[in-house]
Amino acid sequence: MATGCGGSTGEAAPSGQGDTGATKAPTIALFLPESKTTRYEAFDRPLFEAKVKALCAECRVLYSNADQDAAKQQQQVEAALTQGADVLVLDAVDAAAVAPLVNQAKQKKVPVIAYDRLISGIAYDYYVSFNNVRVGEMQGQALLDALEAKGTRDKGQIVMINGATTDPSSADYKKGAHNVLDGKVKVGREFDTPDWSPDKAQQEMEQAITALGRDKIVGVLSANDGMAGGAIAAMKRAGYDPMLPITGQDAELAAVQRILTGEQYMTIYLDIRSEAEKSAELAVAVGRGEKPPAATTVDNGTAAIPAFLLDPIAVTADKVKDTIVKDGFYKVADICKGEAASACAKAGIG
């Protein structure tokens, strides 16, 4: 898969079983925010494109990745509108600042679907994501469970490594985590991490260890797996063995392996297939002029946005087999490599 290919275009090839002239084959523009997080290029893009092709062989998908650059994403959206996109599926780099882009689309009567991140400041057609406050609550509860099991909840402080402030989902994850953690454990240091960067998360964890003292930290709330990897690198450098309990999200392959080997406590498994495919279904439908009913609405501060919110799943080592492996999210051969091979055998995976 190409990464960070802003403005790249994938075109579904026509087939004899595609749409007839009586059925519109819309041009759908998909915009993803960055490629540092593995999921976007490895899962969201190919799953979305495959579903569109399955539903509408003659549909065209214009794909762009903004590489965490809001100005670049603006250019990509404007270019897609110029190229005649009939629908925008937008995972915004800065979801609080893209209302003018959505307004440009509305002026051209082009429907907008907010993908994964809730766009604020303007009304639009649909929002497809996960219950993000619930994600944070699950992470917070998992960390508390781990601390209780170790008997360390009241014997030190935790570090919270939150996501980028430009992503409104980060605020939801943080809110959910605090809903569970506040009053039950002391937060020694808390960071909002630009770009969801694993490197910056490593630096933040190093700062926390220096400021609080190596033996004063009992656990880490990391909002996603990439940043958890950065924090774990910092803990390794500081000599932690075993690692402190640390949370994650996205079920990245490296994180699943870390969970099995005991370096990471848990991840939040998001069924990205369902999210990508639901968004593709909506895009094809609204591109053809249909208006599918939404399961619920979400208040974005300006309007009640028709929404589809999917359920997250908390996964610890004992649940990998019955979730990630069972769903075929990764091949067993890819998980059970190197240091993870013996851990897989112990977990009954193989």
TrEMBL record:
The keyword Manganese does not apply. Keywords: Signal. SUPFAM superfamilies: Periplasmic binding protein-like I. Residues 1-21 are annotated as: Disordered. It is found in: Cell envelope. The keyword Ribonucleoprotein does not apply. Gene3D superfamilies: 3.40.50.2300. Residues 28-291 form the Periplasmic binding protein domain. Pfam families: Peripla_BP_4. Its main location: other. This is Sugar ABC transporter substrate-binding protein. The lineage of its organism: Bacteria, Bacillati, Actinomycetota, Actinomycetes, Streptosporangiales.
